[in-house]
Amino acid sequence: MHIQLIKPNEQYKNKILDYKAEFVANNEVLHGSAGLDKIDNFEEWYRLILQNSSEDTVKKGLVPASTFIAVDENDEIVGMIDIRHRLNDFLFKQGGHIGYSVRKSQRRKGYATKMLSMALDVCKSLGIEKCLITCDKSNIASARTIMKSGGILENEIIDGEEIISRYWISL
């Protein structure tokens, strides 16, 4: 399995919108997409991720982040991953440094583990020494991926009706 993390760009516009549509069709939450699920217009989303990629231009209340699409050897998007360069109070409690998703049609193929490994390398290059990654307690696949990548469960917190598991990975 070969994948690469690529910064979203206009060339992938239709594939990114198809990726989003697969999550909508399956009534799933689109994690690690820098808000793609909340924006209908690719251009607006793309401007937002560019704006939020720098400390100087990040939108008030957010933290700088690097958003990537995970592309396979056939140039198809298998996943998305968002790396937050630092944590604010919200991210410390329940969002973490990294959010990610893999499209339903590509799950159980090792993509999440590979994406997370690559994202941890990016975190290390950003000077992050301990990386927080969270997932819903009910998301067993994500918890396994995080633990396989070295995640140590610190605790679980209640957020409304959800229980969020908080894992740390030392880099």
Could you explain how this protein is built, in words?
By secondary structure, the chain is α+β, with helices and mostly antiparallel strands. The protein has a single domain (3-170), classed as Aminopeptidase (3-Layer(aba) Sandwich). The protein is built from five helices and seven strands; from the N terminus they run βααββαβαβαββ. It has helices at residues 13-25, 42-51, 89-95, 111-125, 140-148, and strands at 3-6, 65-72, 77-84, 98-102, 130-136, 152-159, 162-170. It has a four-stranded antiparallel sheet, with helices on both faces. It has a three-stranded antiparallel sheet with strand order 5-7-6, sandwiched between helices. β2 and β3 (77-84) form a beta hairpin. The two termini are 24 Å apart. The mean pLDDT is 95.
